[in-house]
Design a protein that fits this description.
195 residues; Beta-lactamase; 9 strands; globular
């Protein structure tokens, strides 16, 4: 089926509305709002040090596609939990199979070819986007969560490394900082692998 005149896999387009839709589906299925679900399923089991806060719309519903405020330490703990297959402090928080599926990423050659064309994300040649995570497909098996204005959690399993990054870059798209940030993450991982 064509969407916006494109066949599936023909062109990549990141859409925040997809995140909103997933949150709405989860809320409808469970009967719980996004904030309650995140608190119950992730934040409390993680042992987060501080409350996280969501931006809300005029009707008071949490905005799933952005506007989540948290402490950098808790953000890093979330990344470490992902690096450890969904487990932290002896607790399985996210199913290991789900984390493995995320980290494996998209293996469809056509999908990767869309990124290789450059387009909106020229530094992501060879990367894929899977289950709302950006997959490097590099030899270390690194993957990351990317937010507007440079927010990031970069996870490198081979280097046993997690980088949590707060930022407030002038332009929202990461494509403007990718030429500096991605090589920096990779350089730190390479340095740690030499130790």
């Amino acid at each position: 089926k064509k969407i916006d005149g494109q066949e599936h896999g023909e062109e990549f387009g990141y859409r925040t509305v997809n995140t909103e839709l997933l949150a709405w589906i989860n809320s409808r299925v469970t009967g719980k709002g996004l904030t309650e679900l995140i608190s119950e399923k992730i934040w409390k089991p993680l042992g987060a040090h501080y409350d996280g806060y969501y931006q809300v719309d005029p009707s008071g519903i949490a905005f799933a596609g952005g506007g989540f405020s948290l402490n950098l330490r808790d953000m890093a703990m979330f990344g470490e939990m992902m690096r450890n297959g969904g487990k932290l402090n002896g607790k399985q928080i996210i199913p290991a199979e789900a984390v493995k599926d995320i980290a494996t990423g998209g293996s469809d050659a056509e999908y990767k070819a869309v990124f290789a064309k450059g387009g909106e994300y020229p530094k992501l040649d060879g990367w894929s986007y899977h289950n709302m995570w950006w997959i490097t497909n590099n030899p270390h098996g690194a993957y990351m969560a990317r937010g507007v204005h440079g927010q990031a959690i970069y996870i490198d399993p081979a280097a046993e490394m997690v980088i949590a990054r707060f930022a407030s870059t002038y332009l929202a798209s990461n494509k403007y900082i990718d030429p500096l940030s991605i090589p920096a993450y990779e350089a730190v991982a390479d340095y740690l692998m030499k130790k």
